[in-house]
């Protein structure tokens, strides 16, 4: 460990001073928090707390399983996305959530699950963390989310993966599909 | 245009019914909005409105310019990130914001700017859109943001780009650097 890395590990450069919840909703909580930096300066941050999410890059070697669904937050309804969902069940681990979402959204199970990576969606204002998985050896398996998510299945030819990347505007999908392109070429 | 695409273009499948602002802060507004879908069902969505952001993949062919800074929202301070910032100046276009941020964060201008792509950070709950740019032909140019952002410059060897991707956990940086790896290999 370099001296620089040691110092980092030893002394986080800011200390939480507390704050208040300004909105507590169904899926998000918004907090205004204060922090004191090592140099003494105090700063205020607006933070959207989110329980996290999973996204699944699922394919059978021929077909890449994508979805489209209404996304009211951005006024879009034809974004190409990988299957995904919130970590909204108490105590549910990311892999179990990914398995549940795959069955709910595209009616598939997978015999092989591989963690791809975890990332933060937008570190400036939200703590949302997304766990991406690679699901292969697919088989039919259905589950009901109990909610009408209006999901349209898109069976995308895996050989046209580059076209999917080129037309994609969704963070989790871009990251998952560019990862897959690297994997398939590597 | 396929009949499917025509129908999509012609009839967005949900109609905004209005809503209320539940938090109006400095950088975000949180709204609870209602929408009616084509099938008549009405749904409620919590939406974090954000003015958008820019991120810059900047290199001179040898050195890739990255940064680290305290990210209070996620409790991290050593995330590897591309230079980035909010679209927080009225009327400022994304390219102008990217040029301003590059000078503020890493003290560089660039003679060549290329738009990479735009993406949504987290379509389930936020309208934040991030505009990524590729900046090359760099030269020294400083600007003062008027704020202590505690930014540590990281001069990353471009030949070790794969290592940067492997250790990255930030969405804009993953997307920008995986795009760059494809560009350099293509």
Account of the 3D structure:
The structure is a homodimer of 186-residue chains. The first copy, chain A, contains 4 helices and 9 strands. The first copy, chain A, has 186 residues and is α+β, with helices and mostly antiparallel strands. In chain A, the strands form 3 sheets. The first copy, chain A, has a 4-stranded mixed beta sheet with strand order 6-4-8-7, sandwiched between helices. Chain A has a 3-stranded antiparallel beta sheet with strand order 1-2-3, with no helix packed on it. The interface between A and B is large, with 62 and 62 residues.
Q: What does the overall shape of chain A look like?
A: elongated
Query: Which sheet architecture does the biggest sheet of chain A show?
Result: 4 strands, mixed
Oligomer: homodimer
Q: Residue-averaged pLDDT of chain A, rounded?
A: 93
Specify the helix fraction band of chain A: 10-25%
Tally of separate helices of chain A: 4
With strands numbered from the N-terminus, the spatial order across the biggest sheet of chain A is 6-4-8-7
Whole-Å distance between the termini of chain A? 30 Å
What is the rounded Rg of chain A?
19 Å
- Given as residue ranges, the uncertain stretches of chain A (5+ residues, pLDDT < 50) are 1-8
Number of strands of chain A: 9
Order of helices and strands of chain A: HEEEEEEHEEEHH
Task: Tell me the β content of chain A.
Answer: 35-45%
Helix/strand/pairing class of chain A, anyone? alpha+beta
The chain pair forming the largest interface, with residue counts per chain, is: A-B, 62 and 62 residues
């Amino acid at each position: 460990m370099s001296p620089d890395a040691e110092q980092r590990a030893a002394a986080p450069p800011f200390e939480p001073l507390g704050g208040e919840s300004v909105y507590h909703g169904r899926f998000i909580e918004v907090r205004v928090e204060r922090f004191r930096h090592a140099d003494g300066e105090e700063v205020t941050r607006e933070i959207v707390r989110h329980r996290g999410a999973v996204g699944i890059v699922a394919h059978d070697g021929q077909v890449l399983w994508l979805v489209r669904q209404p996304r009211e937050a951005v006024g879009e309804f034809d974004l190409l996305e990988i299957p995904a969902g919130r970590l909204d069940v108490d105590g549910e681990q990311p892999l179990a959530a990914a398995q549940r979402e795959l069955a709910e959204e595209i009616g598939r199970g997978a015999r092989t699950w591989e963690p791809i990576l975890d990332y933060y969606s937008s570190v400036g204002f939200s703590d949302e963390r997304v766990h991406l998985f690679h699901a292969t050896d697919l088989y039919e398996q259905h589950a009901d989310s109990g909610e009408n998510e209006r999901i349209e299945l898109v069976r995308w030819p895996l050989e046209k993966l580059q076209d999917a990347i080129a037309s994609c505007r969704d963070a989790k999908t871009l990251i998952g599909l560019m990862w897959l392109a690297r994997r398939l070429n590597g």
